[in-house]
Design brief:
Helix content is 71%, strand content 0%. It contains eleven helices and no strands. The radius of gyration is 22 Å and the shape is elongated.
Length: 289
């Protein structure tokens, strides 16, 4: 009986790995993202305290007082941007992991068990009808601003997209001859899902996770800019830009540097996603071999 994993390139296949590395989007995006992650992880240990106030050095331009200058309270902007990278990456990775995990389970159930399909999908359609930014603001206003609340508020709107993706894959795969043969032979449903259906969802979900990660970082920055995201005492790219907008005409670097950091990070994630999409697509992968 053929295995489902044979229908798409496996992430552990050496040929697939070679194609991924050869893909310029994956290579350059991965290198840039790795550099950002290293700076986010190690940088704050070698820079000034991001919340230390120094009114004598307020609104200093980039130079001797700091690589990125200082903000309206004399805080080192370079240190705050590095710490903001931690927040954005944490939110992006956490949202991607949670939404993929929950959406995968619900999508498998909806696609395979027809009795539950209508119920689950109607709930997902209801969630998708609510704008993500409004749902996030409503949740944060009810439960208070915190990192956990922000992650939860961003995860909920992303789950329906994952559910619809997984469900569409399950509806297609369950009609394959090897799945029908497994059903006819009396194989239990959990084994069919694990051995024959789940492997077909891995490649699309990896790609989807990269897009969710980038979207989550943008949404977190929007919430921070609107004052509805991470608390002000925790530096994030969104609330750094929000605090600096009043002084934008005099000190544009307060918004410029966190904005550039956010754009580069999201662009790197999207490059990796585009490259993985091309690599894990069987038709494109065969043409590149």
């Amino acid at each position: 009986m053929p295995e489902a994993s044979g229908n798409a390139p496996s992430g552990s296949d050496p040929t697939t790995f070679r194609i991924a590395v050869a893909n310029r989007s994956v290579l350059w995006g991965g290198c840039a993202l790795a550099a950002i992650m290293v700076c986010a992880a190690a940088g704050p240990f070698f820079v000034a305290d991001p919340v230390a106030l120094n009114p004598m050095n307020r609104l200093k331009p980039p130079g001797a007082e700091g690589f990125f200058g200082t903000d309206m309270l004399g805080r080192d902007l370079f240190s705050r941007v590095l710490n903001g990278a931690r927040v954005s990456l944490t939110v992006g990775i956490a949202v991607a992991a949670l939404s993929i995990a929950v959406g995968l389970v619900l999508g498998l159930i909806a696609g395979y068990i027809r009795l539950l399909d209508a119920v689950i999908m109607r709930v997902m359609d209801g969630l998708m009808s609510i704008p993500a930014i409004l749902l996030a603001i409503a949740m944060i206003s009810l439960s208070g601003a915190s990192l956990l609340t922000v992650v939860s508020a961003i995860v909920i709107p992303e789950i329906p997209r994952v559910v619809r993706l997984v469900r569409s894959i399950v509806l297609t795969v369950r009609e394959e001859p090897y799945v029908e043969a497994a059903i006819a032979s009396g194989t239990k449903v959990p084994q069919i899902m694990y051995r024959h259906i789940l492997p077909n969802t891995i490649a699309p979900l990896i790609v989807q996770a990269t897009y969710i990660c980038g979207s989550a970082m943008l949404l977190e920055a929007i919430l921070g800019f609107l004052g509805a995201g991470i608390p002000p005492e925790i530096p994030s790219w969104g609330n750094i830009m929000s605090e600096g907008r009043t002084y934008f005409q005099l000190t544009p670097w307060i918004i410029f540097f966190p904005g550039i950091a956010l754009a580069l990070t999201v662009l790197s994630v999207n490059f990796v996603g585009d490259g993985l999409r091309d690599t894990l697509d069987p038709r494109i992968a065969r043409s590149m071999r």
